[in-house]
Design goal:
Pathway: Amino-acid biosynthesis; L-methionine biosynthesis via de novo pathway; O-acetyl-L-homoserine from L-homoserine: step 1/1. About 30% of the residues lie in helices and about 25% in strands. By secondary structure, the chain is of the alpha/beta class. Strands 1, 2, 3, 4, 5, 6, 7, 8, 9, 10, 11 and 12 form a twelve-stranded mixed beta sheet that branches. It is globular. The relative contact order is 0.14.
Length: about 300
């Protein structure tokens, strides 16, 4: 089944070029199927890029999804045209009375700030609380994962002495958990962050379970509320060239940035990246949608509690 997306969303044409099956609202309205309602709170600066990355992964499922994009009223994006935001995004205030089968909250470029210093902290924590009564399962990514763990469970973050930057090997802790259906014993994930959460802090919280770790990148995947919350510290959704673009951008700014680890062929930035995370990324999103959204959400969406 395809994704049901807003008419004229730029990602539609971009993904059609990759032979990914998506349809717009006009065509989807003719299909007699109750789609899963998925909300995406996109906090990344380059919103069209992030939309495309996420939709690419969400499309790899036989389920029909109706995707809605949420924005914060307390924050204005500086890197995305206002026309795009007005056309495709809605304020949380206009969406808060609705219920959703699943939700994705992305990372944000504010990780080196204290949480309470972020100018939209009050609004986003209201959204975090709202998900617990209005969403069947929520996927928190990167900064959102750290922020969600801090807000819900008091798990702190710590600065790293250097940026966690590259593609790292990870292992599942509980291979029988449905989120790992089809996974190999070792899988790879891109990371790009200046802060971390620590295992010993999470283990103090009985409601949380660490599902996956990396010897190099630390805690990767944490589950809360029996699958109603997933906290993902890496960027499984990244496209092949995202780390390359970040690296070259920071070099151009004169920042002290090391080459991303385990990323370029022969560790030579003149070579193309060696992509080793797409299989895992597709499984992560399709397993989440199938086992923790579709299998758990009520047919009557208003019954979500």
């Amino acid at each position: 089944m395809p994704l049901n997306l807003p008419d004229k969303l730029p990602a539609i044409e971009l993904l059609k070029e990759e032979n990914i099956f998506v349809i717009d609202n006009s065509r989807a309205s003719q299909q007699d199927i109750r789609p899963l309602k998925i909300a995406i709170l996109n906090l990344m600066p380059l919103k069209i890029t992030t939309e495309t990355d996420l939709i690419r992964l969400l499309s790899n499922t036989p389920l029909q999804l109706e995707v809605s994009f949420m924005k914060l009223k307390s924050h204005t994006s500086k890197n995305t045209p206002i026309e795009h935001m007005m056309t495709f995004y809605k304020d949380f205030e206009t969406m808060k009375k609705e219920k959703y089968d699943g939700m994705i909250i992305t990372g944000a470029p504010v990780e080196q700030m204290d949480y309470e210093e972020v100018n939209y902290w009050d609004e986003i924590t209201e959204i975090f609380d709202w998900t617990r009564t209005h969403v069947t399962s929520t996927l928190y990514i990167c900064w959102a994962a750290q922020a969600g763990l801090y807000h819900h469970y008091g798990v702190p973050k710590y600065p790293l002495y250097k940026k966690m930057f590259g593609v790292f090997a990870h292992t599942p802790n509980d291979i029988l958990n449905p989120i790992f259906r089809g996974f190999d014993d070792i899988f790879y994930v891109p990371h790009s962050r200046h802060t971390e959460i620590r295992k010993e802090d999470i283990e103090k919280v009985s409601e949380l379970e660490i599902l996956s770790e990396s010897d190099d990148a630390g805690v990767y995947l944490v589950m809360g509320k029996n699958g109603r919350e997933f906290y993902v510290t890496g960027h499984s959704e990244y496209s092949p060239l995202t780390l390359d673009e970040e690296y070259k951008r920071d070099l151009a700014k004169g920042l002290d940035i090391e080459m991303p680890c385990n990323y370029y062929r022969d560790d030579n930035p003149k070579n193309t990246p060696l992509v080793r995370w797409r299989g895992h990324a597709n499984l992560l999103f399709s397993n989440w949608l199938n086992y923790f959204v579709y299998q758990e959400t009520p047919y009557n969406i208003d019954d979500i509690r």
